[in-house]
């Protein structure tokens, strides 16, 4: 029987999966049969427990994803733990806030490194392994509403996520002929630690909900379907696209 969403036998590397969106994606991929390698600075104990409690396989690679020199080693350690990498989810990211007139060079550089440079280097390392092994692969970048909108007071975040959208298209153009699909997910407003202050602000929370046709904040598991689709053979003819998972925000 053809099961286009089945990830049995696949190894997926997910960065920044200790909580929030990365955790939701990792669990969804595991529930579809993938072996999961969780990468980041913080031990993803809760995510590992949830995956293993559901009968899945998970390994951890500790790495500081604010450093460009870790990418090759991350992929090497992932393959040592779980076998050749078939799927890479570039989820880890940071944000810094300040008026553009006051924005510091260090805040610019830190965000651009973590959100744009390291995802490129990880994608490059994963793709080199896929090509060397003559196997297809899936690379999924986690973009942002600010990949297509401007935002305010987050200059480096907007620049990095806009750059990630462009990078997604470029890599798709170069690597589609190699059997590697590169796409991105554009999350909307999700209930995570990063948005706690917004949800606790009665006025801002109301404004956001009024703009979302679905009438609610997203939950991390809401990203699972899009992630499984883009990671599976169901998306074999999908290249260079950005899929919004935003409750209808961008369509408003």
Structural description of this entry:
The structure is a single chain. The chain is an alpha/beta fold. It has a single domain (about 10-190, about 220-245), classed as 3-Layer(aba) Sandwich (Rossmann fold). It has helices at about 20-30, 45-55, 70-80, 105-130, 155-175, 195-200, 200-210, 225-230; strands at about 10-15, 35-40, 60, 85-90, 135-140, 180-185, 240-245. It has a seven-stranded parallel β-sheet with strand order 3-2-1-4-5-6-7, with helices on both faces. Helix 1 (about 20-30) crosses helix 8 (about 225-230) and helix 4 packs parallel to helix 5. The radius of gyration is 17 Å and the shape is globular.
Report the top-level CATH class: Alpha Beta
- Treating each run of at least 4 consecutive H or I residues as one helix, how many helices? 8
Share of helical residues: 40-55%
Structural class comes to alpha/beta
Q: What spatial order of strands do you see in the largest sheet? A: 3-2-1-4-5-6-7
CATH topology: Rossmann fold
Broad shape: globular
- Which regions contain 5 or more consecutive residues with pLDDT less than 50? none
Task: Annotate the secondary structure layout.
Elements: E1 11-15, H1 20-31, E2 35-40, H2 45-53, E3 58-62, H3 71-82, E4 87-90, H4 105-132, E5 137-142, H5 155-175, E6 180-187, H6 196-200, H7 202-211, H8 224-231, E7 242-245
Parallel strand pairs: 1-2, 1-4, 2-3, 4-5, 5-6, 6-7
Helix pairs in contact: 1-8, 3-4, 4-5
